[in-house]
């Protein structure tokens, strides 16, 4: 799915994150849960929640604009940021 296709229709967008590469199983579990929740596009990062260099999270933020009717889905709110 391209960014333009994403912006053209209502979608569920998932975001998964783990802090280290050793947590690959946990990342896959999050992705599976997001797919079951109906996420059509899933962005995922292996970075700490404090890092501002989360490339996939930044792509998600660039794709979602004010007025979109899409939903952002996470398995837990702290996957977005530690300070949430």
Folded structure, characterized:
The chain has 84 residues and is of the alpha/beta class. Helix content is 33%, strand content 19%. It has 3 helices and 3 strands, in the order αβαβαβ. It has helices at residues 3-8, 24-36, 55-63; strands at 12-18, 41-46, 71-73. A 3-stranded parallel β-sheet has the order 2-1-3, with helices on both faces. Strand 1, helix 2 (24-36) and strand 2 form a beta-alpha-beta unit.
The secondary-structure class comes to alpha/beta
Strand order in the sheet with the most strands: 2-1-3
Note poorly predicted spans: none
The average pLDDT is 83
Biggest beta sheet summary = 3 strands, parallel
Number of strand elements: 3
The coarse silhouette is: globular
Number of helices: 3
Classify the beta-strand content into a percent band. 15-25%
What is the first-to-last residue Cα distance? 29 Å
Q: What series of H and E elements makes up the topology? A: HEHEHE
* Rg from Cα: 12 Å
- The portion of residues assigned to helices is 25-40%
Which tags fit this structure?
84 residues, alpha/beta, 3-stranded parallel beta sheet, 3 helices, 3 strands, 33% helix, globular
What is the secondary structure topology, with strand pairs?
Blueprint: H1 3-8, E1 12-18, H2 24-36, E2 41-46, H3 55-63, E3 71-73
Summed up:
With 84 residues, the protein is of the alpha/beta class. It is 33% helix and 19% strand. The chain is globular, with a radius of gyration of 12 Å.
């Amino acid at each position: 799915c391209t960014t333009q296709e994403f912006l053209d229709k209502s979608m569920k967008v998932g975001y998964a994150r783990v802090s280290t590469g050793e947590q690959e199983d946990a990342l896959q579990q999050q992705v599976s849960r997001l797919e079951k929740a109906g996420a059509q596009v899933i962005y995922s990062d292996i970075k700490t929640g404090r890092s501002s260099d989360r490339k996939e999270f930044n792509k998600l933020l660039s794709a979602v604009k004010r007025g979109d009717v899409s939903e952002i889905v996470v398995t837990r709110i702290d996957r977005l940021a530690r300070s949430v």
